Amino acid sequence: MELQKRYGLPTAICMVVGIVIGSGVFFKAEAVLNATGGNMPLGIAAWLIVGAIMMICSYVFATLATRYERVSGLVDYAEVTMGQGYAYAMGWFAASVYVPGLVSVLAWVSARYLCVLLGWDITGGSCMVIACFFLCADYAVNALSPRIAGKFQVTTTVAKMVPLVLMAVVGTVMGLANGQLHENFTAAASSAVDTGTGLMASVVAVAFAYEGWILATSINAELKDAKRNLPRALVIGACIVVATYLFYYIGLGGAVTTEELMASGEAAAKMAFQRTFGPVAGTLVFVLIVISCLGTLNGLMLACCRASYALGARNWGPRPDVFEQVDPATNMPANSATMALLYSAFWLLFFYGANLAEPRWFGAFGFDSAELPIVTLYAMYIPIFVQMMRKEKELNAFKRFLMPALGVLSCLFMVYAAFAAHGVRVLYYLLMFAVFMIVGLLFRGRRQ
């Protein structure tokens, strides 16, 4: 069986907006300020830089989406530009590391915000139990009823825009009226933080908040009129995300001081909403934030469930005859979805041991699975953009040369930012990355 064309343009746009907007904008706001020593203009610069990179890369892939429609967008574009070997490597990385790594972090973030809402301990085992429950529940929804998962994605995307727009508008107006916004913008940065290093660390942190948009291409085979609707979704979604993030961040600075944001962690968003809208209304809005995180988790799981299928449908990777199967009752690649759950559970365990457990389980190899795999994907975009400039001769100069060239420069900047922010830890991560890729190549070689 083949996957049915069941999704329209609204679902595709909500995939882009819903996957990207959700947790990072709440989760990383204080990380950006801590990295810049409380320098709010420098933090805004980080949001703008990564937003511009997202818009450039999404435009380049939108151009490819107007020309190619196969099984799964990202793997399709890698195949037509770089060939099957590179496409397999990218598909394997996405299925085994990148997407399940994001899914696991989102399950944990959703659980943490629920604990903040309920006043529970966010560092104890109960938070991880809730994260496991969210992971399994979202897998069940996507594996058993993809239509419900699609509707849930649209609903949560609309719901998550409410608190963001409210804070952007009301927080900005309130901050201008009481002088809080001016104070935050003019406050001196901590002398202990180097401006260049702080900006690079902020860029890498913000990358998590912007990441996931490329996964909207995973529903390429299930999207009606994909060559027309997918490019529209990528471009429109990217514009919505950048505008929302920028104005929310400014509105947040109008509600609380930079010192409070830096010190409060996950509770900073709750404090800002309660101070702006009152205790009751602020709590209700914070409920929407939890729903927002779950919506992001759903979008990522929606893509994750199809990742192994994208390889199996091409007769690539371990047991393609198993992962290419589509359940006749649900019209979902059930085996691929089950594998996605196993990958995600592994990365949730890794994230806990590397970042939360005391003492840390993996020592120097305990990298942040919410950031470094994202930068790896940007590095893997570079050959695709270069080959696009060489092969796509039917495109005009703007689409064929200028935008892909800007994409290459953007990706190189992200790689530099990762080394500047994480230093030698990047090398330990690359060793683990190499191990995963070698395992994937062994599976492919043994099958052939």
Structure report:
This protein is mainly α. The protein has a single domain, classed as Amino acid/polyamine transporter I (Up-down Bundle). The protein contains 20 helices and no strands. Helix 5 packs antiparallel against helix 6 and helix 7 crosses helix 14. The protein is globular. The mean pLDDT is 81.
Determine the N-to-C terminus distance: 24 Å
The fraction of residues assigned to DSSP E strands is under 5%
Rg result: 21 Å
Number of domain modules: 1
What coarse outline follows from CA principal-axis ratios? Answer: globular
Main beta sheet:
none
**Any idea what the CATH architecture is?**
Up-down Bundle
Please trace the helix and strand order, writing H or E for each element.
HHHHHHHHHHHHHHHHHHHH
Structural class: mainly alpha
List strands and helices in order, with pairings.
Layout: H1 9-20, H2 24-27, H3 29-36, H4 40-65, H5 73-82, H6 84-118, H7 125-144, H8 146-178, H9 180-186, H10 195-210, H11 226-255, H12 258-264, H13 267-277, H14 279-304, H15 307-312, H16 320-323, H17 334-356, H18 372-391, H19 397-422, H20 425-447
Quick summary of this structure?
Its main location: membrane. 77% of the residues lie in helices and 0% in strands.
List keywords for this structure.
single chain, 448 residues, mainly alpha, Amino acid/polyamine transporter I, 20 helices, 77% helix, L-amino acid transmembrane transporter activity
